[in-house]
């Protein structure tokens, strides 16, 4: 089991961030803890975008899936997305076998 993170930038601006994967089985407590961390970070970031930058992104959150697709970029939105990426990178550094991050520059 692993969580995949796809991050896409264009001219140094975040355009798309997708997080997918989920582990909810009790027997894999290590993975469940990582999923809880990623879920908490994701919910916080989506709430922040929704409240501080309304209508700037297409936001999707389903079980085991988060997608942020930028429609209208602002410096505040880019700062929020950079914070999201830093938080995911921090979790990935400690859990490199559980989270795989793919960064794409287009």
TrEMBL record:
Family stated for the protein in its record: Belongs to the Prp family.
Which is one Pfam family of this protein? Peptidase_Prp
State the source organism's domain of life.
Bacteria
Instruction: Extract the GO molecular function terms from the UniProt entry.
Output: cysteine-type peptidase activity
Q: Where are the transmembrane segments?
A: none
One of its GO biological process terms is: proteolysis
* Record-given protein name: Ribosomal processing cysteine protease Prp
Which keywords, in A-to-Z order, does the entry hold? Hydrolase, Protease, Ribosome biogenesis, Thiol protease
Organism of this sequence: Absicoccus porci
Q: Does the keyword Protein transport apply?
A: no
Listed SUPFAM superfamilies = TM1457-like
């Amino acid at each position: 089991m692993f969580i995949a993170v796809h991050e896409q930038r264009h001219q140094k601006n975040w355009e798309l961030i997708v997080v997918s994967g989920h582990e909810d089985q009790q027997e894999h407590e290590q993975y469940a803890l990582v999923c809880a961390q990623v879920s908490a970070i994701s919910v916080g970031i989506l709430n922040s975008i929704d409240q501080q930058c309304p209508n700037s992104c297409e936001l999707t959150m389903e079980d085991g899936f988060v997608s942020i697709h930028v429609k209208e970029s602002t410096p505040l939105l880019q700062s929020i997305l950079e914070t999201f990426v830093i938080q995911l990178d921090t979790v990935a550094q400690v859990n490199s076998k559980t989270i795989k991050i793919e960064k794409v520059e287009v």
